[in-house]
Design brief:
Number of helices: 9
Structural class: mainly alpha
Number of strands: 0
Radius of gyration: 19 Å
Shape: elongated
Helix content: over 70%
Order of helices and strands: HHHHHHHHH
Oligomer: single chain
């Protein structure tokens, strides 16, 4: 099924906003520049996103999370060990950050840092995004034998290390912070898992 011109424009707008969020944040790009990057007139933006730039940003956040979940699900299908899947997930994000010259980070963290208490729609979208990621990881951990409570705590740690590690790596212009976080956290989790499975 081919995209209609309208759906293609909508997708271009979301792609342009996603790129802006990764590189410059929501307030780092003007509407005129964003529309030029998407190749879309202003009227088309409000046709697809009546709430303007904020509604477009929410759509971009939702799209980013859907892609992250798709990638994570693929890794979880490939690796029976969710800790190894998480390692590959974090390594892939690290490689993309490094490949961008440390310019394109995770848009979730970027928007979260610049949002204010008045940005209700953005904060709700971000909270939903982080919760969705945590729940998907927690489900995989539960399926691997963790209790529900433990799985939720471990999933929160993994998401925190992912986002915080990428943020530190971006400003340091080095992959070392996230590599250290990944190796240390996932190493501890693997040791904990091994001790649990070998206990008499």
């Amino acid at each position: 099924m081919t995209d209609t011109p309208a759906s293609g424009t909508r997708e271009r707008l979301i792609a342009a906003m996603t790129d802006a969020l990764r590189r410059r944040g929501l307030h780092g790009i003007g509407l005129t520049e964003l529309l030029a990057q998407a190749g879309a007139p202003k009227g088309v933006l409000y046709h697809h996103f009546p709430g303007g730039k904020t509604e477009l940003a929410v759509a971009a956040i939702d799209d980013v999370v859907a892609r992250m979940l798709g990638w994570l699900d693929g890794l979880l299908q490939k690796h029976t060990d969710p800790i190894e899947a998480a390692r590959q997930w974090m390594q892939g994000a690290t490689q993309r950050l490094s490949g961008s010259g440390f310019h394109a980070g995770c848009p979730l963290a970027t928007v979260a840092l610049e949002s204010t208490p008045d940005d209700h729609a953005l904060r709700e979208a971000l909270a939903r995004a982080f919760a969705t990621l945590r729940e998907r990881i927690a489900l995989a951990l539960e399926q691997a034998g963790e209790t529900r409570e433990s799985a939720q705590g471990v999933a929160s740690l993994i998401v925190a290390a992912y986002e915080g590690g990428l943020l530190q790596a971006r400003v340091a212009h080095s992959t070392e912070p996230i590599q250290q976080a990944t190796q240390t956290l996932l190493g501890l989790l693997a040791a904990r898992r091994d001790a649990r499975t070998t206990a008499p």
